[in-house]
């Protein structure tokens, strides 16, 4: 399999890269800064898959056509979005990358003849309604973060996530379309501690999760064909493999409670 990894120098992506390569998948890692190329290529030494680095700024992706040019140069089977402005460049960069470029890559990927999976690394609090499984205190904390702490980031992520949900719903109605797996992995607050390999997955409380655990879960989700939708993630007590199996078996999708039909009407009136 060929994986296009967008935001390849991000901390989660740096953990994902060797996991993908160890499955004998080939990875093209997209980075903005050419100085990061050697660091990323070093991740592939001794592993089964082939690793390439593509130097390209996602801030320059202004349309689905721009995104399609990158897809056409790589012809990936799987596209993984692990990119973000990271607070650099102010609100304009956050909207340009986390929202607009993400949407352009989704548009291009969902219509690409080669792409069969799209995995988005998003954010647990990216939703408009309090889910039934979350406490009032947890939801109040999320609302505070979304409105007072990181309002531009929260707006951008929610716009991208809702667009992805709308695209997914439309795709399911297209009887001529081939199989397509759209996964929105939504971690809580990210930490830099080593992986615990123990998580709460699917419907979760608000909380923290290590970046390495996010990568481990993403790798396992992408390797399966029976999981899709919004999958929330924090560290917990359940071994990763067991948690992933439960999400698959119970068809858990944290988009539950959101107005997906309204999203479709908004983006595709």
UniProtKB/TrEMBL annotation:
Which Gene3D superfamilies would you find in this protein's record?
Answer: NAD(P)-binding Rossmann-like Domain
- Lineage, top-rank taxon, reads Eukaryota
What InterPro entries does the entry give? Answer: NAD(P)-bd_dom, NAD(P)-bd_dom_sf
All copies of domain NAD(P)-binding, residue ranges: 7-223
Protein family according to the UniProt entry? Belongs to the avfA family.
Quote the protein name from its UniProt record: NAD(P)-binding domain-containing protein
The taxonomy runs: Eukaryota, Fungi, Dikarya, Ascomycota, Pezizomycotina
């Amino acid at each position: 399999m060929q994986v296009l990894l967008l935001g390849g120098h991000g901390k989660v992506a740096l953990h994902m890269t060797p996991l993908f390569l160890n499955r004998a998948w080939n990875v093209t890692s997209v980075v903005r800064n050419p100085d990061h190329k050697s660091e990323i290529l070093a991740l592939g030494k001794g592993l089964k898959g082939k690793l390439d680095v593509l130097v390209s700024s996602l801030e320059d992706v202004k349309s689905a056509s721009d995104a399609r040019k990158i897809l056409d140069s790589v012809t990936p089977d799987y596209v993984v979005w692990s990119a973000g402005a990271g607070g650099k460049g102010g609100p304009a960069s956050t909207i340009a990358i986390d929202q607009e470029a993400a949407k352009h890559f989704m548009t291009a990927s969902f219509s690409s003849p080669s792409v069969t999976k799209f995995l988005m690394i998003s954010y647990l609090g990216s939703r408009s309604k309090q889910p039934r499984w979350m406490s009032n205190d947890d939801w109040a904390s999320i609302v505070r973060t979304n409105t007072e702490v990181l309002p531009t980031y929260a707006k951008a992520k929610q716009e991208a996530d809702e667009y992805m949900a709308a695209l997914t719903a439309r795709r399911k109605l297209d009887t001529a379309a081939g199989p397509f797996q759209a996964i929105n992995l939504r971690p809580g607050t990210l930490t830099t501690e080593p992986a615990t390999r123990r998580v709460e997955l699917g419907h979760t409380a608000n909380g923290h999760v290590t970046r390495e655990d996010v990568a481990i879960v993403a790798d396992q989700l992408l390797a399966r064909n029976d999981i899709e939708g919004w999958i929330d993630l924090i560290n917990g007590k359940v071994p990763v493999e067991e948690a992933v199996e439960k999400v698959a078996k119970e068809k858990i999708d944290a988009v539950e409670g959101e107005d997906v039909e309204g999203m479709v009407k908004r983006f595709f009136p």
